[in-house]
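This section describes the prediction task in plain terms. A model, or a person checking by hand, is given the sequence of a single protein chain and must write out its three-dimensional structure as a string of tokens. No templates, partner chains or ligands are provided. The sample shown here is typical of the held-out split.
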Amino acid sequence: PGPRFQKPDGGFALWQELRESDLYLTAYVLLVNSQTRELGAALPPEVERSALKYLAAALNKRPDHEPDVQAVALWVLSREGASAKDALRLFPLVRERVTAQSNGADPLGLSALLLAAHSLPNVADREKVRSELIAALEKSAAVTATQLHFAARSPARWWQSIGSTLRDNGLADVSGAAMITLEVDGTVTVIPRKKD
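The expected answer:
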């Protein structure tokens, strides 16, 4: 038996009473798990494998999840050795879902796709894909005197994981700027064009 919040399909739910797994929460649990593993604390291997299988199955079967959440799940898959094969297969599908959004791609989804491409050296046209994702991120960037911000497309979306809608734009900013500048090669720098 797995943790109390893991569902039979391998995903996690915010409350034990919920029947359905949540894609974003499952990806988030696995992301935290990868960080705590380095400190000597991690989920049991069978729990982790089950959750990774859930991510791949959910991305394959359920395109109704928000595209940016799908991109985060794809990034998490791309970081885990055995699941990287699933991530490579799903990359074009999730990329299409993220970039085809009618209101524009969210910086969080673009950042997660960029990180997934970085983790998957066999992505077709990898350098072209990376350049396109960086260009899309640059379009949503704004510079103030002290910070680099990325405009969130759906400001109330991430409240489930961080507890407040007031922190949402901060999450998009942090995820966009920090994920790119800290994790991708150390050679990628987003320098937005000055707005007139």
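For orientation: Residues 155-196 have pLDDT under 50 and may be disordered.
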